[in-house]
């Protein structure tokens, strides 16, 4: 073949390959946009903030699974992590640490915007539970220390506070590879300044003693403590507006526990109440079950074994150090050496 012909054919093939790649990329983009539109095809019929419930807890602690179950029970919209300090639609307006006694008009506007459902984005709408919701379940893992602020400013807002064993939670964060927790926020000048000027400040020196620890699991357990110490010091059985929920208890007895939490949220979400969920419904993997935990437990049929998996993975000296950190924060009243909560 003549050299010019080979060059011509080569050019044609290269151009054809480029066109095919563009078509494939366009198809992927179209499919991605279709998935996004499918998630966004819903209509909120009521923007009253009174028809909202808040689910708070540390990341990788079962908050999405529980929020999905509650939202499905009432046909509610699930607003996913609107207070994320980078991806959330109100970032820059809503701090993650704020003194309940301090007036903050920007935070109040941001909170009302979220509670009324007047936020939409690929981030907050990544888990679709209903097409025509009347109420909203707002799930967030960054705003745990805002619990007292929400209780002070929205006393009728039902809040479910989820707690999972801190070592299991931290081990899951390590497996995820990258996670934006409160520790990253406290490394920013604004986050640190807000924390120092709030009731959280009393725990900062203790947290600082471990935030650079050589053992990553110890660092993450300290981060779990700084996420939970302040709200758990106030959210107890005496606060009727907060339902404390232990992840392990929900896993072992989902029907009883989710029925209890659904009843707790019924005043805000009950207008769209559906038939009670079945065990099969509740055993379905969450949208954020990245590691197949629920799927694996379904196959093995042993949920208790799944809850205690970390006890065989974490060396005993590391576990002992983690328990010591928990005790220093005064949170050993919740968890001891075993995987299950003390109560």
Describe this structure in words.
- The chain contains 15 helices and five strands.
- With 343 residues, it is of the alpha/beta class.
- The chain has a five-stranded parallel sheet.
- β2, α3 and β3 form a beta-alpha-beta unit.
- α2 packs across α11, α5 packs across α9 and α9 packs parallel to α15.
- It is globular, with a radius of gyration of 23 Å.
Rg, Å, rounded: 23 Å
State the major sheet. 5 strands, parallel
Strands across the major sheet, in which order? 2-3-1-4-5
Percent in strands: 5-15%
Overall shape: globular
Q: Would you list the SSEs in sequence order as H and E?
A: HEHEHEHEHHHHHEHHHHHH
Supply the number of helical segments. Answer: 15
**Average pLDDT over all residues:** 87
- The end-to-end span amounts to 83 Å
**Total number of beta strands:** 5
Q: What is the structural class?
A: alpha/beta
Note poorly predicted spans. none
Query: Helicity, in percent?
Result: 40-55%
Assembly type = single chain
């Amino acid at each position: 073949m003549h050299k010019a012909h080979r060059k011509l054919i080569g050019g044609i093939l290269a151009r054809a390959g480029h066109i095919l790649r563009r078509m494939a990329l366009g198809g992927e983009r179209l499919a991605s946009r279709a998935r996004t539109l499918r998630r966004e095809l819903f209509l909120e019929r009521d923007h009253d903030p009174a028809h909202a419930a808040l689910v708070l807890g540390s990341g990788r602690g079962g908050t999405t699974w529980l929020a999905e179950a509650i939202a499905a029970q009432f046909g509610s919209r699930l607003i996913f992590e609107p207070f994320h300090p980078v991806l959330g639609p109100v970032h820059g307006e809503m701090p993650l640490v704020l003194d309940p006694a301090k007036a903050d008009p920007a935070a109040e506007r941001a909170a009302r915007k979220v509670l009324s459902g007047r936020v939409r984005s690929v981030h907050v709408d990544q888990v679709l539970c209903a097409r025509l919701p009347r109420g909203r379940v707002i799930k967030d893992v960054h705003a745990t220390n805002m619990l007292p602020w929400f209780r002070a400013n929205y006393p009728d807002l039902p809040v479910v506070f989820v707690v999972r064993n801190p070592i299991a939670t931290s081990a899951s964060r390590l497996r995820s590879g990258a996670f934006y927790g409160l520790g990253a926020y406290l490394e920013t000048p604004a986050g640190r300044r807000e924390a120092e000027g709030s009731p959280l400040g009393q725990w900062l020196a203790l947290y600082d003693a471990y935030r650079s620890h050589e053992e990553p699991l110890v660092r993450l357990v300290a981060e779990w403590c700084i996420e939970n110490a302040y709200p758990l010091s106030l959210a107890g059985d005496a606060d009727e507006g907060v339902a404390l929920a232990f992840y392990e208890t929900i896993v072992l007895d989902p029907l009883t526990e989710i029925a209890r939490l659904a009843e707790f949220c019924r005043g805000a979400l009950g207008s769209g109440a559906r038939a009670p969920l079945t065990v099969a419904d509740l055993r379905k993997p969450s949208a954020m079950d990245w590691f197949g935990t629920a799927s694996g437990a379904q196959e093995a049929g042993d949920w208790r074994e799944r809850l205690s998996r970390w006890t065989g993975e974490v060396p005993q000296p590391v576990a002992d150090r983690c328990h010591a950190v928990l005790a220093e924060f005064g949170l050993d009243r919740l968890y001891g050496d075993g995987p299950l909560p003390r109560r």
